[in-house]
Amino acid sequence: MAPSLNEEPVGDDRRGFLGNATAVLLGALGLAVPAVAGIVTALNPLRQKSQAGQSIRLATLDVLPEDGTPRKFPVVADRTDAWNRFPNEPVGAVFLRRTGAKQVEAIHVVCPHAGCFVDYVAKEDEFLCPCHMAHFDLTGKRKDENSPSPRDLDTLEVEIRGDSEVWVKFQNFRTGTPDKVVEA
Amino acid sequence: MNGLIRWIDDRTGLMTSIEECRARPTTGGAGWLNVWPCTIMFTFVVQAVSGFFLWMLYSPSAQTAWESVYFIQHEVLGGWLLRALHHYSAQVLLVLVALYLIQMILTGAYRAPREFVFWVTVLIGLVVLGLMLTGDLLAWDQNSYWATQVRTKFLLLLPVVGDYLYKLAIGGPAFGHLTLTRFVALHIGLFTAAMGGLLVLHVWLARKASESKLNKSRARLQAPYWPNQALRSAVASALVMVVIVCLALSHGTSGESRGIELGAPANPADAYAAARPEWAFLGLYQFSNIFPGELKILPIFVFPSLLLAIVLFMPILGRLVVGHAFNILFMLVVLGGIVALSFMSVEHDRQNENYRQALKDGDAQARRAIQLAQAPAGIPVSGALTLLRNDAKTEGPKLFTQHCASCHDCCQTDEQGNKQGIVAEKSSAPNLFGFASREWVPGTLDPKKYVSPDYFGNTKFRKGDMVEYVKEMFEDMEEEDEAERMSMVIALSAEAGLTAQKAVDNRDKQRIAEGKDLMVDDFGCTDCHKFHAKGQLGDAPDLTGYGSREWLVGIIANPAHKRFYGEDNDRMPAYAESADQPADNVLTESQVGILADWLRGDWYEAK
What predicted TM-score, i.e. pTM, was given to this entire model? Predict the structure, then answer.
């Protein structure tokens, strides 16, 4: 005959505790399987690296004004987004500025403060970030005493190849930090 | 019937529960001030219902998010209203939670035994903010994309974990498909479930608290929930719905801007300068602007966390009379600060010309994107952004400004003498406004205009064979010659096949034929120029198909080609010289095509 449902469990407190602990542990272990499997996939982005860092041909010298007025050039590169690959897509932009017969300075358009794009304002001959009104001079130096930006605009490595090709090593930098750190 | 009800009640306890709910006494009796929890739950249900139907229409990926929202907004019957209801009920929900919290603090209802009710309500408020922040991005338009960029990048301010949190939040090193799939999961899954759970918990805790309060103050007469309180709550909920509907209809019921507007599709390569957070965050936005960059972590993380900590500590502090007074004062100061800062932010933007211009440009781009999406060609698989990128009306002026406007104007002069359009940095080449049209071509056969800055006055062609020729032929013209010259103008302009001149070109077929004959026979154009079967290349630009798309693409690609200026080319760079090495060219084939289309005024316009 089956034991009566009303029968009190035999045993002391310790057994009761062991029983409870086992039940909790078994339940937790069971739940942990899908939870861990899910969390592992959710952490996958940590393995992804930024794609920037390649040298890209942006312009030729003759299209850059000799008086040093900056010009904005879109950066076109292959881009991967999860399961898609996009060849030749605009991925950012760079200001190029002649500083000599064969010298060019490249400034990233992304404001180091919050990641907006700075504009060149011809009237003031400066760069202006429209999001929080940070002003920069043509070399990228902060003009405001209390600039919203934690550092000057980011310069990029420029290389003149052949006679007149302007190549730039395009990288994104972390925003919001006083130091210029390449985005990982 | 009664038997059926009894049976259901026996098995489920449903009727008994309902009866118990109706009879449950309310603390302090029925009152209008007790309606908040009910209206909050009601508004959340509105959110859930409208959200569910939006979900049925939404597709989260970088190429389909904006597109599916466009479809909801502009193609689906009543879709705009559904979207507006969802949007505005979210705003109303936040306001209701805030009012509920304010009332709790003012009346001291956050204190024992209702501490947990207060804490759960604060959590509800946080979840509502989470729902707003994740929901905002889903439209994937310029404002939501760039505002979320700024927001998520704030995570990078955090030491050590910042990098990891950022990548986890956006699903990789940069925004894309996975950002959307994540935000959807958080918005529809996690936060919605959390909201439901917290609301149930709130009811449970509120009952528990009122029971404990009732036990302590048995003497006071307590009115049952039904009917007085229930009716008040129902009326309040209905009023909330009226407010939501009014807000949803506040931009009219027709036209593109009805409901809640959809901006231009997110463009990762073109930051939106007018990106601003939603109204609830404007105060924080303005507050954070006070701080220099290095200290940004203070307004973004440290102060809000401190504020939250103080709010959560309020029930404990409120046990003292002084503490309660402090809580009220603190709340008023914070609220006043938020309102003042939000107002400052709006005022600041209103006076900011750059902001207003960016807003205007953004609106124009949004309208254009919608127009193109509604065009017969529709949205390609690659998404609506490609529509804009290949659109001559959108990209033409940008490309021209960037590549051509160092020398060429493309502008009209209005009656006041102001130049309207794109003005060159230093005009040193022909003004290309209306190039090859019947208004433009005459200048090439007018001795005065030919040497003016709008034509060849600033080029080396101000001296040369053509000027001599034009002077000789047209300096002292008879009236009869004028008609002949016009015939040639019409004939040459017809070579362009401009869309805008289609009708007049068709009408003037006869005259075009005459003009062609004049060019070849009487005026000897083909002595230097090639024109169809007559003349040859090498001395002067080919006039065959002059100003046509194909001709323009050719001259932009390489003006020094013998078909155009050959060795006589004056400073004009070749933009796509190399056909077999496209990577060497300044402009891509499609960019050159866009420039040609734009110069010819050839783009899609809604009928």
Answer: 0.88
In this prediction, does ipTM exceed 0.85?
Answer: no
A23 within domain boundaries: yes
Torsion, CA B319, CA B320, CA B324, CA B326, rounded to 10: -130
Q: What is the pLDDT at residue B66?
A: 98
**Residue A177 to residue A182: CA distance in whole angstroms:** 11
Torsion from C-alpha of B300, B303, B308, B312, nearest 10 degrees: 160
Looking at the structure of chain B, the number of domains it has is 1
**Are A130 and B355 a contacting pair at CB < 8 A?**
yes
Give the structural domain span for B170.
Answer: 22-216+223-275
Asked whether the predicted pLDDT for residue B323 surpasses 70, the reply is yes
B173 and A50 within 8 Å at the Cβ level: the answer is yes
Is the predicted pLDDT of residue B270 greater than 90, yes or no?
no
> Which residue of A lies nearest to B571 if distances are taken between CA atoms?
A62
A17–chain B nearest CA distance, Å: 29
Neighbours of A26 (CB within 10 A): 10
Q: What is the pLDDT of residues A2-47, one digit of tens each?
A: 455 555 555 567 788 899 999 999 999 999 999 999 999 999 999 9
Q: Are A155 and A106 spatial neighbours (Cβ–Cβ below 8 Å)?
A: yes
**In 3D, which of B122, B138, B121, B240 has the Cα closest to residue B188?**
B138
Inside any domain, residue A27: yes
pLDDT in tens, B327-374: 999 999 999 999 999 999 999 989 988 889 889 999 999 999 999 999
Asked if B326 and B111 touch (Cβ cutoff 8 Å), the reply is: no
Residue B232 lies in a domain: yes
Residue A22 lies in domain: 13-45
**Chain B nearest-CA residue for A144:** B292
pLDDT reading at B216 higher than 70? no
Q: What pLDDT, in 10s, does the model give residues B376-435?
A: 999 999 999 999 999 999 999 989 988 898 889 999 988 888 888 999 878 899 999 999
In B, minimum Cα distance to A120 occurs at B354
Query: Within this chain, do residues A60 and A38 fall inside the same structural domain, yes or no?
Result: no
CATH number of the domain encompassing residue B172: 1.20.810.10
Q: Cβ(B166)–Cβ(B212) under 8 Å? A: no
DSSP 3-state of A167: strand
Give the length of chain B: 607
Has residue B441 been placed in a domain?
no
Is the same domain home to A110 and A35?
no
A90 and A138 together in one domain: yes
Residue A93 lies in a domain: yes
Rg of chain A over all Cα atoms, to the nearest angstrom: 29
